[in-house]
Write a structure and sequence with these properties.
This protein has 610 residues and is α/β, with parallel strands linked by helices. It has 2 domains: 231 residues, no CATH class; 280 residues, Nitrilase/N-carbamoyl-D-aminoacid amidohydrolase (4-Layer Sandwich). Helices cover 43% and strands 15% of the residues. The strands form 2 sheets. Strands 1, 2, 3, 4, 5, 6, 13 and 14 form an 8-stranded mixed β-sheet that branches. Helix 3 packs across helix 4. The radius of gyration is 29 Å and the shape is elongated.
Length: 610
């Protein structure tokens, strides 16, 4: 009897102890949650603010090295709170809305697209913290290795998923630090982002625990009980980070010293100033054409060998018929177009005559409309015209902008039209392959609009062009763009900055003719060069002011936007070759694979501990 009573008392005592422990854990968990949600929201907002500041329009590039730091502190802390990821999402969403505010300028329907894209991109910050925490706390992978791998992996996925959005990579903030970004010819811009996040991770390791308490990320009762410096593991991680940073810069200095730029063709970039909006009456085609002809005539005085007009700035379509279609069939396919117009050679004659008058090859942005037995196909194209051959070739844009140039899943989900400003349009058809134009011994490959922001696409175009004729390399890339939808916003700057990385990755100079700006010549180091001649096409209109003689405002250093101009420059040809062109995204793909592998273990049960 006494033994049974003693046993019952022990069980009751054990139960009381467990209840006390459970109660204490519950109170601690609630306290941690209250601290963590405020701290996580603050860290997310701070990281978002720093990211916004390091990109255009502020362009405070050094801040990129600490911008991931607040999120990395959320990875570092051991105890996750219930509301951490909601706080991260809310804070990141604010910064994404701020960075992408230029999207709303084209049409009222773009407000919805702006919000949707910002909401989608904010998910990546949540995923970054979540997967990095699994790697660090479950698999004991060092922070300076786990965080940059996951960050880079998600940049790669973001560039591919849902047609891809390869803007605002962390690397892009460093476009002016030319020595740093030279590793892009090995591993793409992804490698620069890797180095930056690895450096920020090393800084996160050096933040004292007392700071985490002050930042309301952890409770005062957690963490080290005595003050101490870096552990041996942390010291090794910091040392490895410094070694990689030094190697990156060393490679950059060596690679730049190997540059031996040789003069290529003299090119003229024609830049009209026609903002685009569906809320306003469109500009008459004659006005667009005559303005570009006037700028063309200014440029011809400098004797360029190649002249480039921006995307879609030749205002009349290039019509063609594929196959033997009768007039009756043509009427059925396009009732609004007279059958004889499909065979009219007027546009081709105009293109050829202008090339002959200019004494130069011309690349025009033009819409190419083709009638075939299956229907009408419309391409966003670059037409290549030479003084001797006339229309010598054409490139059709391959990477179309969803909802702007085509409507995804239209056959299955017709209500998707409501998300597009072009609700009555059938959309454009993507081209099937890259095109190489040859003129005067030079080989060039055109890319259109946002294609210059897609690293794997540009890399594939350069690789395909170099393999097309006994390995002869592409001498330079030609981008034609219409940024008139964004009305002089920071989009113009960010588009140019993003494009500059394609030149480094491929070791191929890139020239850009952009409606409203910013037109530019970018060399194989990624340097955006000042043109030899800058012709202010608005000088007569602004007679009370001295004409602009530079692509930049001498007072602010900012690029001029929204003006009529012509830029003339001799292309600096680059004889260096790129491993990125040869082997592609092997590095970023490995990071993405590792990220997905760690993510797949996130919901596995933990092993019970004694």
């Amino acid at each position: 009897m006494a033994a049974g009573t003693m046993k019952e008392k022990r069980q009751e005592a054990d139960r009381s102890v467990r209840e006390i422990i459970a109660s204490a854990r519950s109170v601690r968990k609630q306290a941690t949650a209250r601290v963590g949600v405020l701290g996580a929201l603050g860290m997310s907002l701070l990281s978002g603010l720093l990211l916004w500041l390091c990109f255009t329009p502020v362009n405070a590039s050094p801040l990129a090295w600490i911008a991931p730091l607040p999120l990395l502190l959320l990875v570092r802390i051991e105890q996750r709170t219930h509301w951490m990821y909601a706080a991260i999402y809310a804070g990141t969403l604010v910064s994404q809305l701020a960075m992408l505010q230029w999207m709303r300028l084209g049409d009222p329907t773009m407000y919805l697209a702006w919000a949707a894209l910002a909401g989608y991109l904010a998910l990546y910050a949540v995923a970054f913290v979540a997967i990095s925490r699994v790697a660090v706390h479950r698999w004991s992978i060092p922070l300076v290795l786990a965080a940059p791998i996951v960050w880079t992996g998600f940049e790669f996925l973001r560039a591919h998923l849902m047609t891809g959005f390869a803007w605002y990579f962390l690397a892009h903030s460093q476009y002016r630090w030319l020595e740093l970004i030279q590793i892009s010819d090995l591993v793409g811009a992804y490698g620069v982002s890797f180095v930056i996040v690895m450096s920020a991770s090393a800084l996160a390791l050096m933040v004292p625990h007392t700071w985490l308490i002050r930042l309301r990320l952890v409770l005062a009762s957690t963490g080290p009980t005595t003050a101490s410096g870096l552990t041996l593991s942390q010291l090794v991680q910091v040392t490895a980070t410094l070694a990689l940073f030094a190697a990156t810069l060393g490679y950059g200095y060596v690679r730049r010293s190997q540059a031996d730029f040789q003069p290529g063709p003299r090119v003229a970039l024609i830049q009209g100033n026609f903002t685009a909006s569906l809320r306003e009456e469109p500009v008459e085609p004659d006005e667009i054409y005559l303005t570009h002809l006037r700028l063309n005539s200014y440029a011809v005085r400098e004797q360029p060998q190649i002249i480039v007009w921006p995307e879609a700035m030749f205002p009349w379509p290039l019509l063609s018929v594929s196959g033997d279609l009768s007039d009756e069939q043509l009427r059925e396919l396009a009732p609004a177009v007279k059958p004889e117009m499909w065979k009219d050679l007027t546009v081709r004659s105009v293109l050829a005559e202008e090339s002959q008058r200019s004494g130069a090859a011309l690349i025009y942005g033009i819409n190419a409309v083709e009638a075939n037995e299956h229907g009408i196909v419309t391409h966003n194209s670059a037409a290549f015209v030479s003084p001797t051959e006339g229309l010598a070739g054409r490139y059709d844009k391959m990477h179309l902008v969803p909802f702007g140039e085509y409507i995804p899943l239209l056959d299955v989900l017709p209500w998707m039209k409501s998300f597009s400003p072009y609700r009555d349009a059938g959309g454009l058809t993507p081209g099937k392959s890259a095109a190489v134009f040859q003129y005067g011994g030079w080989r060039l490959a055109p890319i259109i609009c946002f294609e210059d922001t897609v690293p794997h696409l540009v890399r594939s175009i350069v690789a395909a062009g170099s393999e097309s004729e006994q390995g002869a390399p592409i001498d330079f890339l030609v981008n034609i763009t219409n940024d008139g939808w964004f009305h002089g916003s920071s989009e113009l700057d960010q588009h140019l900055i993003t494009a500059s990385f394609r030149a480094v990755e491929c070791r191929t100079p890139l020239i850009r003719a952009v409606n409203t700006g910013i037109s530019a010549v970018i060399d194989g180091d990624g340097a955006i060069r000042e043109p030899d001649q800058f012709i202010d096409g608005d000088a007569r209109k602004n007679a009370d002011k001295p004409p602009r003689t530079s692509a930049r405002d001498p007072k602010t250093g900012a690029w001029y936007k929204q003006l009529n101009a012509a830029l003339i420059h001799t292309i600096p040809l680059d004889s260096r070759r790129s491993l990125y062109v040869r082997y592609g995204d092997w590095f970023a793909l490995m990071c993405a694979g590792a990220t997905l592998m760690v993510a797949s273990t996130a919901f596995l049960p933990r092993r019970a501990t004694a």
